[in-house]
Amino acid sequence: MNEANPWFQCPLPVTQDDSQISLAHGEGGRLSRSLIRDQILRRLGNDTLLRLEDSATLMLPSPDDEASTALAFTTDGYTVSPLFFPGGDIGKLAVFGTVNDLAVTGARPLWLSLAMIIEEGLPVSLLNQVLDSIRDAAVTAHVQIVTGDTKVVPRGMTDKLYVTTSGIGVRCHSAPTGAATLQPDDEIIVSGPIGCHGAAVLCSREQFDFDPLPHSDCAPLTEPLMALISAGLTPRAVRDATRGGVAAVLHEWTEMSRTRCMLVEDQIPVTASVRAVCELLGLDAIHLANEGTCLLATPSHLVQPTLALLRQFPITQSAAAIGRVAVSRRPAVTMVRVSGREVAIDEPSGAPLPRIC
Amino acid sequence: MKYVDEFRQSKVLTRQLTELRQSVTQRWVIMDVCGGQTHAFLRYGLEGALDDVLELIHGPGCPVCVTPAETIGDAMELTLNHHVTLASFGDMLRVPGATGSLLQARARGADVRIVYSPMDAVQLAVRNPAREVVFFGVGFETTAPATALALLQARQLGLTNFSVLDHHVRVEPAMRAILQLPNCRVQGFLAAGHVCTVTGFAHYEELVRGFQVPIVVTGFEPVDLLSGLSECVRLLEQKTPALENRYSRSARPTGNARAQQLLDEVFQVATIPWRGFGRIAEGGLRLRAEFQSFDARVRFSLESAVSDHDGECQSGLVLSGQIKPPQCPLFGNACTPDQPRGAPMVSSEGACAAYFRYAQTVEASSE
User: In chain A, what are the domains?
Assistant: First the structure.
């Protein structure tokens, strides 16, 4: 550095490389969204795809001109390392993840496809373990695997096993109307403790020995969500808070509805083990992935009966109201901290990277 | 959660804020030294709650921010040209150097691994005897002992495929450098509690006496921060510059003797460059001669290329408390966490990232 004038220089040449996909493009934050918007939708966008819902709604005209049926259709690829982690595995994830993408749009999941890309050398016993898990998960979620595909690629071309599932369900007539219809004073409900899946996979991958160890929340949300719709408590919007966690979902919602979502820190359920992981690694649970926990936006007068109903189901028994929707000059997600101050919550930018010290 | 919840209680915080506000007669300028403190101040909205009565400025205690671009350039060269396996803390991966960031290098095929401890890097070397493994050892006195421990273990194991690209820095010389600035605005310091846990803080007496500036050793939870701030304000109001410890559950005057012994065994104090600051006298640590065989700079004959600076990023001004992040013309427009133009926008401890994450949108979006 320049000895004569040593202060206040930043030797920072600007290097921005947009020509290559980086891992951050796949982590569910701003970059993921720009990849989808600027590259994919620009080329493939159509009326259905542009809605960017967890599952596409497809109207099936009836031949006798009676009321048509609305199908929900979705697909998802699953890559997780390690394949088995506390609370789940790639098979269970591939079934419940796709089931949840259907269920959150107000559809009852019925049929799944299953495609597997397998790395040469994978022990058959391991594959069978995953297949057994897929079978059990399908039984639990009341769906059938009705079609599939397998490909084997040379060693090193994939990380053991990638799974893709697509799913078809039938949409209820009074399904959620979607995030664009959020209204000021709607309340935000979370169906259970947040960040469990992200923390479980992180600890498992990095072999962190926390006690208690976080367990993934991987589970199907169909039953509680169908029960809400049957009871006339259809939320305005529902979303399973997967990649990017609660923060990413709320940022999408506020952008689509041009509102502000204001969370209250001490009302957000977080398990002791997830908190321990977050405190130690400098992470925020609202940025961690979930696989059986969803966010619901519900008109305020329906909040109490909604919570009461959700709490009857084991996987949503810790459901809690964590914030509300407000009018805003521009979209924002904020949180009232324990200090009583309201601060902005940023969208995750790439995978959460643990801090240095 | 023990040692967390009791330091985040709403009731206590409200009382502390009220008392603090009442005790202030002028808008003192106080610097929190550590990036962890900066983030906590902003995360909990404490800076906003006090902004009209106190000016908080944020110091250089962000290890990622002060690692020079040429050191990142060295790391890039190691991965791309020498094809080593580079093991790094996660934070470092997004920081742009002259030829890009380590994340970009990884996208181009470089073998860059995130580790959580230098010991993980040693294990990588043990498991991959045919690979050269380099640990990118950066950070303050908090992380340096772990690097030292890893080197001692590597030596004990007789590893010949393990080395360290080190850029460990020392806090106290940076505080001194800031105080020596002709236009220094800092009237009191909140010293970094975790660094003090390692180094102790008795040696700060000299700064207190020499510059007549109060220094309060401070922790990282909201109650800790307000407690440190209250003490600093008390000392300022009473015009009695002194050294106080408000993080006594962790920091002791003489620090952690074992950690200091490790540091002394492996490193020697050196004058090294800080990003945005230039060279700081005794501002860092370098490997001792007897560890030269583990020095990646020596092993791979690195000749750190001093990179051109574009002068736009004002990290030096930010890190020395001369300006606040939003005063930089790049902030929030050309420079965001997705497209960082400077290191303080990258790190989870960088002041610019903290402002971007927590301080930006509330006022603008409120009803």
Answer: 53-60+67-171 (3.30.1330.10), 179-344 (3.90.650.10)
